[in-house]
Amino acid sequence: MKTDALIRLTNGAARLGLSLSEDHAGQMFEYLNLLGEWSRTFNLTSVTDPDEQITHHLLDSLSIRCYLAGDQIVDAGTGAGLPGVPLAIVDPARQFTLVDARAKKTRFLRQVTRTLGLENVEIVTGRLEDYRPHTRFDTVVARALAPLPRLVELTGDLLAPDGILLAMKGRDPVKETHELGEPWGVRDTHRLEVPGLRAERHVVVIVKKLT
């Protein structure tokens, strides 16, 4: 890995409160290498500049790490593995399930887990509407997947009774939060400060209200 890229990644992670080991940094760059190779055929990402990938893919994903709850995490509509793969790399004690309906993306993710040796990651190919896990999740993560009312329709049944849904957004989705129907409510909305990223980022913490 290039020294300047390593410095950008580790310094950025430190600003997010994460001490990134050299091994974990190496896994992240290997992930980006695989993403670049597969994208030449399957167009998995529109962000191809290496510097932008550190910011837009890796650090953006890591920015929500402090908001995760519990040990069972599902990345709903994971696409190319964001934010699930970077989070699984830095949090090997947690179990991550990455769900996507597109087989070409889950084939890529299986290659990623094999190459990186990510034993804490399970890949599921299927539509969220049809996914019925054996156990429910402590945290559901979704990155720019759908408007919030639709998002709770897609993922609400995946949550454990006291679980949380982390919806990663660009601008603060105030209108969407007001459109959430029962029994859902917004616990918090946090502005994310992603190192090197000038665009707005927010995470909305959604919970099921007690009845």
Structural commentary:
With 211 residues, the chain is an alpha/beta fold. The chain has one domain (3-208): Vaccinia Virus protein VP39 (Rossmann fold, 3-Layer(aba) Sandwich), CATH 3.40.50.150. Helices cover 38% and strands 23% of the residues. It contains seven helices and seven strands, in the order H-H-H-E-H-E-H-E-E-H-E-H-E-E. The protein has helices at residues 3-15, 22-42, 50-62, 84-90, 103-116, 148-155, 174-178, and strands at 72-76, 95-100, 121-125, 137-143, 159-169, 184-191, 202-208. Strands 3-2-1-4-5-7-6 form a seven-stranded mixed beta sheet, with helices on both faces. The longest helix has 21 residues, at 22-42. The protein is globular, with a radius of gyration of 16 Å. The protein starts with a helix and ends with a strand.
Order of helices and strands: HHHEHEHEEHEHEE
The tally of strands reads 7
**Proportion in helices:** 25-40%
Task: Spell out the CATH superfamily.
Answer: Vaccinia Virus protein VP39
Q: Radius of gyration, Cα only, in angstroms?
A: 16 Å
Based on secondary structure, the structural category is alpha/beta
Number of structurally distinct domains: 1
Q: What would you call the shape? A: globular
Give the CATH level 1 class.
Alpha Beta
N/C terminus separation: 52 Å
Task: Summarize the main sheet.
Answer: 7 strands, mixed
| Major sheet strand order | 3-2-1-4-5-7-6
Which architecture name does CATH use? 3-Layer(aba) Sandwich
